[in-house]
Amino acid sequence: MKVLLLEDEEITREFFIKILQEIPEVKDVLATSNGEETISLAHSEKPDLILLDIELDGQDIDGLQVARSLFEHNQDNYIVFITGYAKYALESFSVHPYDYILKPVNKNRMQNLIKEISIKIEKFNFKPLIITYADKIYQIDPSEVIFIEKENNISYLHTTRGIFRSYY
After folding, report:
1. What is the edge-to-edge ordering of all strands in the sheet holding 154-159?
2. Which residues, 6 or more positions from 141, have their beta carbon under 8 angstroms from its beta carbon?
3. What percent of the chain has pLDDT over 90?
4. Tens-place pLDDT, residues 107-155
5. Over 90: is that where the pLDDT of 6 sits?
6. What average pLDDT score do residues 16-28 get?
7. What DSSP assignment string belongs to the chain?
8. Cβ–Cβ < 8 Å for 111, 51
9. pLDDT tens-digit readout, 24-67
């Protein structure tokens, strides 16, 4: 899982990076202190999870504005706000965050949350089965497959949508 972190305080950012690097499901951590850079990285790097601080000292943009910009372009992002202020919680729901964590952060809670999100991402990042039979091509979600049976050189995929034949 690729994680993008926006945190303006260097010590806190380093603490979060250390926590994230200890989680086996996290393969890549992109960290920045700048809201505009976060938007740019989100578009170019396509992270699976975006962790956002809300109050960003000395910047024209805050974490909520970053989240709104990201939400306009991709509503499938997993966004988690990590902030020291509960007062933004209601406003944050406009971008449908997965969670809202108040600082100081409990390390175990954060690790469990990241693992939970990783499971959800893995579950929904499937590659469809491409089945061809009788000059027709079918795309089947693997989660729709109930069972597969084989008779001679034909496989029958029994799915929630019906039965599909294939020579594979």
Report:
1. 145-151, 154-159, 162-166
2. 126, 128, 129
3. 69
4. 999 999 999 999 888 776 667 888 887 888 888 888 789 999 999 988 9
5. yes
6. 95
7. -EEEEE-SSHHHHHHHHHHHHT-TT--EEEEES-HHHHHHHHHHH--SEEEE-S--TT-S--HHHHHHHHHHH-TT-EEEEEES-GGGHHHHGGG--SEEEESSPPHHHHHHHHHHHHHHHHHH----EEEEETTEEEEE-GGGEEEEEEETTEEEEEETTEEEEE--
8. no
9. 999 999 999 999 999 999 999 999 999 999 999 999 999 999 99
Q: Which long-range contacts (CB under 8 A, 24 or more apart) does 27-31 make?
A: 27/1, 27/2, 28/1, 28/2, 28/3, 29/3, 29/5, 30/2, 30/3, 30/4, 30/5, 31/4, 31/5, 31/7
Buried b (16+ CB within 10 A) or exposed e, 103-125: eebeeeebbebbeebbeebeeee
pLDDT tens per residue, range 148-158: 999 998 899 99
* Alpha-carbon torsion angle 64, 10, 22, 79, nearest 10: 0
